[in-house]
Amino acid sequence: MAATESGPGMLYVTMQPQAGLSLDQFHEWYNNEHGPTRLRIPAIFTNGLRYSAIDGKQPHFLAAYDVTDMAHLETPTYLELRANRSPREADTIGQVDVDRSFLDLVYAQQSPNFVPIEQRTDTDAEGLVLVTVEASLKKGVEGAADAVVKWYEEEHIPMLTKVPGWLRSRVFRTPSTIEGTSTGDTKIVTLHDYAKINGMGGPEHQATMATARYDEMYDKYISGRYLRKHQLFYVFGPAPRELQALANLPASAAFTAADGRTSTTSGSDGAAVLTSYVTTPDGLAIPYRLEGNPSPTAPTVAFSNSLLTSLHMWDPLVALLKAARPDLRILRYDTRGRHAIPTPPVPATLDMLADDLATLLGALRITALHALVGVSMGGATTLKFALKYPDLVNRFVACDFNVASSAANTAGWKERIALAETEGGMQTLAAATVERWFHPHTMGEKKEVVEWMTGMVAGNEVEGFKYSCQALWDYDLREEMKSCKVPGLLVVGEGDAKGALVRAMDGFKGLVGGEGAELRLVKLAGHLPMCEAPAEFWEEVKAFL
């Protein structure tokens, strides 16, 4: 059927893992691969919700995806997604009894206080109840579907609205218009959302099934009724985040997607690691790495890297953090420009960089960070994020940065761009940059650190550097930072810019939040103290974190 004759609906999937399939394998695959892949197509799927049965029946699991237009499920975008399954997905789904249904939305009514589940926090959404009723229609009875739908609209759902805890009711019809009538008998499927504490079974609910019209529907039109009760237990986002099941799997369960952009390392005791990406509103893929405490409720510390580095600049510090604070979940990501730039190219700004992090947190359904730590451009990003999104972070550590740019700094960045565009390219810039960044002690006594960082800087693309460094050309946070509501700590390597940055940060520390922030110095370190002297850096920040 043509797209113009279709409309919104639902992909409705029930699943029962077969005996022998590990539930951790089932959940890790579904939460880290299957679901997020679909949520990365917002033009088709607006959400993805997983439920588990609370009625003791099988199949035990239900997944419901709201579809913007059912015709999209006939397009190559969706069909190729199903056809190009990974070997891991094929193996896992082969051990699951699956029943998929396409449902056309016919009618919906919701409470004035209803909030879409995907817009709730995980804590707020936990335990929401879903009742599904599948009504089979009597064969050969003309107008049965229309009569049942009309009853739902005019009587049954209006009565359900009086049940305590009722949130929403939706009426669907299957087979979908995209399937045609030859695929099976018409059924009316209703989905009813309730709060965790509700009045199901109470007098208001009993009254909905004690009317003359209710009896008429079952006498004339409905041949059978199949009711199920489920409870919400997982909400998909476009970025995988399932560490708990991953931590329970053996090392052999590690997975890498065909495109190489998503991979997992399984295992307990902090070994579980998930790397993937999130797409920003302007189309950039931002890689991230999630590890540490596998609990979805663990407090999360995020790290924002400096210009020209990658998320791996935090490797030495993260190793210390995982050992010292196993209670923390750890999130790292690559700043825009490391891998790609928008098309057409757009210079980065601190607002963009703060928005990128907000997008990442939203995709991972992280409501607020325990802490955000950033250095250099990441330090400026950290402060900007705390100013722009104070509800998304509880504290911050901003390192080796300035609160305002200058004409001299802008000229310096232009010179570095010119150097990067010479024949030696990023390799030439990398050697000069690391020598400028690092303390003489690091340059002389820690050759392996120098080589590691030089390689990391050289791995940048010239165009990415050219446009991302412009975030540091023209900004001034001096007035704005006075209104900062988030507690902060400032840290700087004692030799950064031969001590000039120490003096600069000492000069503006008193402006943070009006009451000021403490400034801590890391000895024998320059611009990247967490790389040059990770143990000493940790000593300066651990009490604050």
UniProtKB/TrEMBL annotation:
Superkingdom in the source lineage: Eukaryota
Pfam families associated with the record: Abhydrolase_1
InterPro entries with a match to the protein in the record: AB_hydrolase_1, AB_hydrolase_fold
Annotated keywords: Hydrolase
Annotated Gene3D superfamilies: alpha/beta hydrolase
An annotated Gene Ontology molecular function: hydrolase activity
Domain AB hydrolase-1 residues, every copy: 305-436
Homology family: Belongs to the AB hydrolase superfamily.
Protein's UniProt name: Alpha/Beta hydrolase protein
Phylogenetic classification of the source organism: Eukaryota, Fungi, Dikarya, Ascomycota, Pezizomycotina
